[in-house]
């Protein structure tokens, strides 16, 4: 039986500290303190007490039992399953309260697009707390409301286990910050939690394009008569609209006016609601001695993927299970973190992608309504084309039709035209340095490598960076196009591709290593100088890649600039005669031309250094020289590093201007990579993590883009294309793992059309072989 606690319900007086055991494994905790009475802390307390009724478990909560902030809480079926398994009593109480629905409505420029099959469950946050209060009281947990917890050190000394569930502003975490090592990042939008007294029929996203900028709200029902409403906008929009000057009541009224149509003219209500900038919390460690962090004290993930309460409750389940399975507390806390950290970090990556999407919302609103809705639904990269086809085949089919997919054709197998070249599909084998050339001449390894990927079905196969001079090599094993012997070897490869894999395009990437040259092959020591035979380096400025490790390059003077430019042009002429279908100019990853673009590597004071216009001057001169000699009907692309992942380096806004300049000079597409410019970079790795930069360039400039970086599945490719984030997708490691990746992607999607033809000798293998006999 669940009975709600009174306003000051407390346990019996807590006895003095239990003597600490001597050396050796500690027994399971007998006295447990929980700091914070939110859902995570309460559920952890209930589970730990339920495991052992002899335990003394006390929760300190500084607010009253009826105090809560926010309104509705969304719980996934996965989370509910964990609650059911851990404590069926709480699960049954929740199940009776849950509001369930399947649809998502996206309202944009007067169009409402509905996608179904998503499966949500929610209830009021206050009701959730009442259920957990009652369960704790029933189990004998001491609930100390309106009471500040003792200092962290006092709790740790007087208890066997301290569970810090004290939220995003955790005092426990800050007390032990030197050990937990928190990283807290504030973001660029302001948001406010509100409610309305009627239930939306779906999870509703609505976009308002106002005179001040783009605003959005998302809303969902949490009871039979109420819905949560979150209003969010960029900081500069918030200020331009004057929200920073309004009190709570005025802000609420203004939000209701902006979204009056969605609300049916109803008023919004607040609950000590304030405009907030979301903060992402991460910690290097989650435990210290007998103190452990859970929920927002340990980690936060943006509310747009509905993760805060879910993560806290799942933490509570995992912590209780670890304590139950490991009598030694150190082992228990280690097991808890080992289990939860990968799950949390995956959720944080998805939440970060969703957060960034909403921060850049203004760059998405020009998409057609269904494409916009698909883009929004797939923003975190957890919902994809494949699972949307399962959830809502009608909606997905409509998006595919808008994209131009012929019947039965996945998006990745639609053709794409660049200048005079039509690619039969959207898959690109990304440039991959092999480091096995002799004197710059590609050999049999290159023939087999590129030939097998061409036979594997990709629309475009790119060479590694082909160097324009001996001094422009990265390693002694790099290929080149500075001699006719090298050109003849490339001609042999191009002839094989065009003859044996007709319809596959072969592209060459031309580049110069700059300050990152004269190093060992990757597997011998990446970025390490040669033990002997190093050649002199040149760069935009005399800055070594790694001071004290790599040599200092000479800054190119006027004669050197001219000579290198002509080397690029000469290599392009040879590439044209060799039969390449496309040429890419490598202006990324800290190599020579990239070194001119980044303010971190270009410290020149002449016409080629200074502001971005000046830093662009030499790469554009090289581009123009190459474009002049490259056949007019063959496309040229440019690979750029859209961010240096380092303070003071190239920014996303700079990348747009760099792409704009190259497009104005005739680039047919921009290949959008990131980083590798400076050694102290801090990339934010994750699934298709570079795609937002490609997305911004494509949709701000209307320039075709190639997306690259941790795109690993055909589902990723289809999702990126349909969402309008890329025109082509380049994959490297998947093609190392499987040279026939594209053909296998076609087979797995049951596509047998002209965009992925199996070579005649391979047709018998066009179906997946059986893995075992079935009687």
TrEMBL record:
Segments forming domain FAD-binding: 32-348
InterPro entries: Aldolase_TIM (IPR013785), FAD-bd (IPR002938), FAD/NAD-bd_sf (IPR036188), OxRdtase_FMN_N (IPR001155), YqjM-like (IPR044152)
NADH:flavin oxidoreductase/NADH oxidase N-terminal domain ranges (all copies): 412-746
Source species taxonomy: Bacteria, Bacillati, Actinomycetota, Actinomycetes, Kitasatosporales
Name the UniProt record assigns to this protein: Bifunctional salicylyl-CoA 5-hydroxylase/oxidoreductase
SUPFAM superfamilies recorded: FAD/NAD(P)-binding domain, FMN-linked oxidoreductases
Chain intervals for the UniProt region annotation (Disordered): 1-29, 754-775
Pro residues bias: start-end ranges: 14-28
Cited Gene3D superfamilies: 3.30.9.20, Aldolase class I, FAD/NAD(P)-binding domain
């Amino acid at each position: 039986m669940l009975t709600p606690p009174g306003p000051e319900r407390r346990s019996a007086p807590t006895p003095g500290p239990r003597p600490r055991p001597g050396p050796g494994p500690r027994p399971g905790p007998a006295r447990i303190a929980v700091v914070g009475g939110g859902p995570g802390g309460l559920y952890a307390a209930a589970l730990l007490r339920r495991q052992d009724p002899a335990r003394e478990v006390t929760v300190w909560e500084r607010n009253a039992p009826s105090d809560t902030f926010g309104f509705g809480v969304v719980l996934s079926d996965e989370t509910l399953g964990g609650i059911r398994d851990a404590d069926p009593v709480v699960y049954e109480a929740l199940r009776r309260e849950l509001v369930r629905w399947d649809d998502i409505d996206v309202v944009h420029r007067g169009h409402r697009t509905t996608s179904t099959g998503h499966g949500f469950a929610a209830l009021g946050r206050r009701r959730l707390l009442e259920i957990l209060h009652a369960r704790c009281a029933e189990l004998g947990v001491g609930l100390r409301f309106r009471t500040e917890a003792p200092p962290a050190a006092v709790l740790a000394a007087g208890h066997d286990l301290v569970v810090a569930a004290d939220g995003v502003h955790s005092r426990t975490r800050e007390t032990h910050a030197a050990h937990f090592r928190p990283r807290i990042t504030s973001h660029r939008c302001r948001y406010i939690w509100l409610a309305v007294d009627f239930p939306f029929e779906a999870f509703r996203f609505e976009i308002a394009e106002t005179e001040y900028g783009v605003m959005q709200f998302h809303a969902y029902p949490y009871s039979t008569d109420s819905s949560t409403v979150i209003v969010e906008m960029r900081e500069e929009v918030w200020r331009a609209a004057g929200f920073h000057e309004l009190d709570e009541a005025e802000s609420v009224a203004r939000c209701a006016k902006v979204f009056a149509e969605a609300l049916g003219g109803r008023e919004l209500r607040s609950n000590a609601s304030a405009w907030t900038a979301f903060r992402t919390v991460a910690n290097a460690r989650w435990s210290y001695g007998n103190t452990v962090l859970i929920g927002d004290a340990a980690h936060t993930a943006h509310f747009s993927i509905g993760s805060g309460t879910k993560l806290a409750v799942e933490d509570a389940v995992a912590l209780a299970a670890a304590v139950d399975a490991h009598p030694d507390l150190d082992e228990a806390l280690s097991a808890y973190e080992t289990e939860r950290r990968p799950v949390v970090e995956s959720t944080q990556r998805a939440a970060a992608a969703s957060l960034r999407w909403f921060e850049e919302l203004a760059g998405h609103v020009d998409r057609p309504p269904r494409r916009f809705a698909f883009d929004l639904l797939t923003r975190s990269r957890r919902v994809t084309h494949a699972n949307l086809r399962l959830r809502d085949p009608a909606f997905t089919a409509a998006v595919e039709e808008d994209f131009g997919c012929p019947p039965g054709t996945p998006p990745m197998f639609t053709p794409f035209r660049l200048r005079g070249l039509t690619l039969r599909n959207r898959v690109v084998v990304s440039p991959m340095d092999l480091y096995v050339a002799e004197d710059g001449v590609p050999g049999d390894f290159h023939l087999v490598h590129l030939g097998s990927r061409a036979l594997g079905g990709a629309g475009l196969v790119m060479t590694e960076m082909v160097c324009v001079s001996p001094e422009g090599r990265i390693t002694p094993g790099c290929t080149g196009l500075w001699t006719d012997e090298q050109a003849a070897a490339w001609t042999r490869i191009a002839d094989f591709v065009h003859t044996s894999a007709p319809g596959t395009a072969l592209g060459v990437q031309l580049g110069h290593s700059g300050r990152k040259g004269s190093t060992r092959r990757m597997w011998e020591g990446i970025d390490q100088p040669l033990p002997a035979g190093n050649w002199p380096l040149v760069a935009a400025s005399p800055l070594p890649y790694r001071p004290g490790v790599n040599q200092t390059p000479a800054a190119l003077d006027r004669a050197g600039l001219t000579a290198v430019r002509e080397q690029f042009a000469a290599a392009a002429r040879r590439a044209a005669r060799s039969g390449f279908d496309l040429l890419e100019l490598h202006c990324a990853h800290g190599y020579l031309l990239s070194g001119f673009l980044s303010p971190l590597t270009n410290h020149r004071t002449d016409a080629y250094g200074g502001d971005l216009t000046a830093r662009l001057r030499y790469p554009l001169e090289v581009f123009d020289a190459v474009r002049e000699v490259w056949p007019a009907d063959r496309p040229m692309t440019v690979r750029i590093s859209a961010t240096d992942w380092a303070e003071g380096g190239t920014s996303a806004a700079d990348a747009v201007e760099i792409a704009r300049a190259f497009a104005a000079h005739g680039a047919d597409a921009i290949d959008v990579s990131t980083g590798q410019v400076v050694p102290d970079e801090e990339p934010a790795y994750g699934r298709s993590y570079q795609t937002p930069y490609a997305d911004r360039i494509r949709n701000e400039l209307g320039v075709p883009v190639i997306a690259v970086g941790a795109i690993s599945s055909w589902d990723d490719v289809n999702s990126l294309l349909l969402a309008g984030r890329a025109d082509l997708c380049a994959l490297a490691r998947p093609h190392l793992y499987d040279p026939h990746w594209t053909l296998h992607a076609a087979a797995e999607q049951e596509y047998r059309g002209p965009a992925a033809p199996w070579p005649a000798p391979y047709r018998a293998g066009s179906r997946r072989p059986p893995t075992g006999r079935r009687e």
